[in-house]
Amino acid sequence: MRYDLVIFDNDGVLVDSEPLSNTVLAGYLTELGHPTSYEESIRDYMGSAMHRIHELVMERTGQRLPEDFDDVFHGRVFAAFERELKPVPGVREVLEKLAADGVPYCVGSSGSHERIRVGHRATGLDRWFPAGRVFSSQDVGRGKPAPDLFLYAAREMGVAPERCVVVEDSPLGVQAAVAAGMEVYGFTAMTSAEKLTEAGATALFADMAELLELLR
Description:
Layout: E1 5-8, H1 18-31, H2 38-45, H3 50-61, H4 69-84, H5 91-101, E2 105-109, H6 113-123, E3 134-136, H7 148-157, E4 164-168, H8 171-179, E5 183-187, H9 193-199, E6 203-205, H10 211-215
Parallel strand pairs: 1-2, 1-4, 2-3, 4-5, 5-6
Helix pairs in contact: 1-2, 1-4, 4-6, 8-9
């Protein structure tokens, strides 16, 4: 294996959560008087931490979101996860292979620890991600596109940044990995190859079956 650590984004890479969460987000923002389409939610918020939603709404409208916005949003998202969430096709096979080969891996997600846990339990991926392999933007001061989360994950896993590769599906996540000095493979299931390339992706893949070949 070419790397000493594989860092997976979570939403859209491990769990197929982006359609569910962005449908909920667009609907909730619209309900609060900030009309947002599903496509706009994907464009503006996919891969970002919660603070970015608050910041963009304030920047664009001069209005603050309700104090309970995060709690209400997460409650709706978690309910959708319990009903409908699935793992990304092929990701179980990737994790099985990495585990069998003894390749260190972890998750570095903009989502909260609770969101990660709920999604992993709902999809059965929790067996591959004990607490010591889960890192959230909650653990650092700034979320993606800042490099803090990926640098923190590498440090906690005891691996130099230049020996890490990040698997991402959003331009914000790709930018964060590049800023951390890591190689990054862009997953094009939800985002165009052009946008991920512009953000700095080292390589692109459209199917999880291709990822193991890239990692070798």
